[in-house]
Write a structure and sequence with these properties.
heterodimer, A: 193 residues, 8-stranded antiparallel β-sheet, 8 strands, elongated, B: mainly alpha, 8 helices, 70% helix
Chain lengths: 193, 182
């Protein structure tokens, strides 16, 4: 066991019992090893108590968090109407530069169905018959559909979708439009990776 | 009584009732120990950061299941953190199964590693309680390998002050570790 010289640290004038007490602390400090430097991302706790009424504020926070750290972050709260296990901000692409989006993932049921709330803002409504599709990705490529939705002309749109897959087999989500034109399927509007 | 004066148990009970301030106080006490535990287990800073987030999401969600009569807050939080970290590790496991070696290893076994993790957890948690002036000198002495004279020079303070702060910090740590954060 290494570490600093205990005698140098505490001196020679302590009563034996107190000296022994400090020696135990000394040994624990040496055994514990150095605490890590904390990353800036962890300076604040994850957002909490995600109220459905706070989604608009959360979208802004999500965009800021994503811009600052380029990573997802997690939230949850026992008082929500929808029990959220994690929230994943979506990053808009150049096809929807002013849009913002958030996926709030619930908890799977016994059969493995994952509920999710998807909230988007700033997406343009598609022509009649068109819709947006949320898909899970593997290696960045869309491979499994979680559902489709249409958006309001203004404000935010929240829809409940779901996935019956093992989410650990995927690496993110994308959103793409369908407008009676298969080529449009390649024009992703949101990514999470 | 402010939230900073509350015990971990009291904070957990408040978190269970949806108290965001208590949650933040608990986070400030435990973020670094959780990060350290995750870093040792996962060996990757990004994944360790994710594990911290997972842990505190779990804390927020499950604090209402905490029963103070079953024990103090620190072990409960340790268990939540360990579960979140293990879940995170499992989710990234490479599916390829390697041949297990049937050779003696010099590495610590599972029991030793568990004990080491718990020791680090307790000590790093206690460090968060020290006044900044004492924590700095303790950290410089133990983990930067500086002598008392070198610390005095580094911090531009008298040697006697370094000695006083170091000893005071050790006394305080002894109190905290004996009390074990009820």
């Amino acid at each position: 066991m290494s570490g600093p010289n205990f005698d140098e640290l505490v001196g020679a004038d302590l009563p034996p019992a107190e000296r022994e007490r400090l020696r135990r602390v000394h040994e624990l400090l040496v055994a514990a090893g150095s605490p890590p430097d904390m990353p800036k991302l962890l300076a604040s706790p994850p957002a909490r108590a995600l109220s459905r009424r706070r989604v608009a504020a959360l979208l802004i926070a999500a965009a800021l968090a994503l811009a600052a750290f380029g990573a997802g972050w997690l939230l949850g709260g026992p008082n929500d109407d929808f029990d959220v296990s994690r929230a994943v901000p979506m990053r808009s692409t150049s096809n929807a530069p002013n849009a913002s989006g958030l996926i709030e993932l619930g908890y799977p049921d016994d059969e493995g169905n994952w509920p999710m709330l998807v909230t988007v803002r700033g997406l343009k409504p598609l022509p009649e018959g068109g819709y947006y599709e949320l898909l899970l990705t593997r290696d960045g490529k869309p491979v499994a559909v979680c559902g489709s939705f249409k958006v309001k002309p203004q404000g935010e749109t929240t829809v409940q979708l779901g996935a019956s897959y093992n989410l650990r087999n995927f690496d993110g989500w994308v959103v793409r439009p369908y407008v009676h034109d298969r080529d449009a399927f390649n024009e992703l509007v949101f990514l999470t990776t | 009584m402010t939230e900073h004066e509350l015990t971990d148990s009291e904070l957990l009970l408040r978190v269970g009732n949806g108290d965001g301030g208590a949650f933040e106080t608990l986070y400030r006490r435990y973020a670094r120990p959780v990060f350290g535990l995750a870093l040792r287990r996962l060996g990757d800073r990004t994944r360790a950061e994710e594990a911290v987030q997972e842990t505190f999401t779990s804390v927020w969600r499950s604090a209402r299941t905490y029963k103070p009569e079953r024990g103090p807050g620190a072990p409960w939080l340790y268990a939540v953190a360990r579960n979140a970290i293990v879940d995170g590790a499992r989710s990234r496991v490479d599916p390829v199964v390697a041949d297990p070696r049937d050779e003696p290893s010099g590495d610590a076994g599972p029991m030793e590693r568990a004990e080491q993790s718990w020791t680090s957890w307790r000590v790093h948690r206690a460090l968060e309680e020290l006044p900044e002036t004492e924590r700095v000198v303790v950290e410089l002495a133990y983990w930067k390998g500086l002598s008392q004279s070198e610390i005095a020079e580094r911090l531009q303070i008298p040697l006697g002050t370094v000695k006083t702060r170091t000893r005071s910090g050790l006394h305080r740590l002894a109190d905290l570790l004996e009390g074990e954060f009820s």
